[in-house]
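Anyone able to model this chain together with NAI?
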Amino acid sequence: SSLRIGLIPADGIGREVIPAARRTLEALGSDLPKLEFHDLLAGFDLFTKTGAALPNETIDIEGGCDAALFGAVSSPSRKVAGYSSPIVALRKELDLYANIRPVVSVEKPSVDLVVVRENTECLYVKQETLTHTDSGREARATRLITERASRRIGTMAFELALARPRKQVTIIHKSNVLSVTDGLFRETVRAVPRLPGVSGRFDSVAIAEQIVDSAVYRLFREPEIYDVMVAPNLYGDILSDAAAALVGSLGLVPSVNAGDSFVMGEPVHGSAPDIEGQGIANPLAAIRSAALMLRHLKYEDAADRIDTAVNHVIREGRVLTPDLGGKSKTDEVVEAVLRRL
Ligand code: NAI
Ligand code: MG
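re: yes, here you go
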């Protein structure tokens, strides 16, 4: 039977890097079952044309696809009536509760960490209200942290740490100020190794914790102290972009949105309107996201082949896009990866 992959390039450079990931998957040949790609729509451009940012056909992706790759959306920074980010909605609809973001440097100084970001709640429940008071407008947002979501993301973090050489989980929080919400997150993740049914499984995993602001500081000073960093949604979003700076570019950092029954690869970067349409977007984050997706589907050898080829191209340093100091185009980088494959 074939492997059915939904492709959702969405906006901006998503349309440039998702085709690059597709070409890479196609080049794997007999390492994978026969591939079947399904093109699906989403995005702000789509919203401006049709009034819907996330069509039902895309929400129903699990019906026709085994996994998916998402590009990026150009969500505006102002409120647009009727619009809401399709990627935030899709993560929630498909219950892709873990956003797993490995940040690894190919060159020294070595960074080898994974940000495990809770993907369904925190401030991203987007319950915001605006009221008019005597002294001006007042905006409020709800921040939701549940024991259930904290427990499942915590369990995911411990499972990932168990499979890594250093076996360390660092809980990122701000419980010194937000003692109720972040307090619940911290306490719930800390308790994961003592859950009924876990029975010693995580005994070899060390637990550390760090307040989010100093975690960013230490990430820049001594990134080697981190292995698996588990964080509520917003902190995880910010930390992973920060970590991307350590390895040279956002254009290198992949992720997967993972649930219990579906996985969707997605580069960590956004739609990069500043370089859109110039053919110079770095495709490596999207290509690595395809590899990560394959890893979650248990096609380890195929994923290894992609990662080896990507690392070779980076290390060689001859064919790189401008974000990494090179002069090459997106297509030239893809060709270099394919040659290596
Ligand atoms: P961004 O990640 O799109 O870009 C930040 C900077 O990194 C820019 O200078 C960009 O040129 C560069 N960059 C990012 N990816 C690159 C790549 N593959 N190759 C070379 N350079 C790359 O973040 P920004 O500019 O803050 O947001 C732009 C739009 O993207 C916004 O509308 C935002 O809402 C959206 N966005 C969407 C995300 C998603 O779909 N998951 C995530 C983050 C932002
Ligand atoms: Mg982000």
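The CA atoms of residues 92 and 120 lie 5 Å apart.
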